[in-house]
Amino acid sequence: GAVVSQHPSWVICKSGTSVKIECRSLDFQATTMFWYRQFPKQSLMLMATSNEGSKATYEQGVEKDKFLINHASLTLSTLTVTSAHPEDSSFYICSARDPGQGINEQFFGPGTRLTVL
Amino acid sequence: AQSVSQHNHHVILSEAASLELGCNYSYGGTVNLFWYVQYPGQHLQLLLKYFSGDPLVKGIKGFEAEFIKSKFSFNLRKPSVQWSDTAEYFCAVSLYSGGGADGLTFGKGTHLIIQP
């Protein structure tokens, strides 16, 4: 149980285009999902907290207009990188909290590698 | 804001050696502590976690960690490593705010290489 998927697993896009990344909880309902970013050979940095039915909470330094988050259902959160630029190239990872397994544990998706040309 | 410090960025051991990876955090309130592992090309997997109770926690694959509150530490240990333990290890902390834990703050990771 507690499986989180992401789609796509990798994406290459041109500079200036927008890219949408999906995060799904497959076998549980997640009221809260988190989005992280991981640069090569570095750690994960929390970008934002996504709550179903409400606005996302962004960490300091993360542009909310550039990284649009929508948590429209209990099993789906999306991250849209708008007007992507090469510096947005990174590995984006989502996680979801499964209330049935304790409110404090998060389950991670496999990540999406974004390359902006 | 809380921070997590992992002492060793690269560790190279021989098989059967004992392992200890250091992790310290900075926050005075109630925290939840985690160790995650990321095998090459795979996603993060939870090794073990500490929420409350016995400060010595046992995880999967023979790993354990000890929470020492006075030292703000949560070091990861394994008595005898295997070649398959080669991976990136991340220590992480989340704050507990009563309504549920916040997002995780990760350490920079330790790249562990086990030589056969």
Description of the structure:
The complex is a heterodimer of chains A (117) and B (116). Chain A has strands at 4-7, 10-13, 19-25, 32-38, 44-51, 57-58, 67-73, 76-81, 90-97, 106-108, 112-116. Chain A is mostly beta strands. In chain A, a hairpin with a 5-residue loop joins strand 5 (44-51) and strand 6 (57-58). The mean pLDDT of chain A is 90. Chain B contains no helices and twelve strands. With 116 residues, chain B is an all-beta fold. In chain B, strands 2, 5, 6, 10, 11 and 12 form a six-stranded mixed sheet that branches. In chain B, strands 3-9-8-7 form a four-stranded antiparallel sheet, with no helix packed on it. In chain B, strand 8 and strand 9 (73-78) form a beta hairpin. The A-B interface holds A 32, 34, 36, 42-46, 49, 59, 93, 95, 97, 102-111 and B 32, 36, 42-46, 49, 51, 90, 94, 96, 100-109.
Biggest sheet statistics of chain B: 6 strands, mixed
Oligomer: heterodimer
Order of helices and strands of chain B: EEEEEEEEEEEE
Number of strands of chain B: 12
Shape of chain A: globular
Strand residues, percent of chain B: over 45%
Radius of gyration of chain B: 14 Å
How would you describe the shape of chain B? Answer: globular
Number of strands of chain A: 11
Structural class assignment of chain B: mainly beta
- What distance lies between the first and last C-alpha atoms of chain A, to the nearest angstrom? 37 Å
Largest interface: A-B, 23 and 22 residues
Distance between the termini of chain B: 41 Å
Radius of gyration of chain A, in Å, reads: 13 Å
Low-confidence regions of chain A: none
Biggest sheet of chain A: strands, sense, closure?
Answer: 7 strands, mixed
**Helix segment tally of chain B:** 0
Helix-and-strand structural type of chain A = mainly beta
Helix content of chain B: under 10%
Enumerate the spans of chain B where pLDDT stays under 50 for 5 or more consecutive residues.
none
Mean pLDDT of chain B: 90
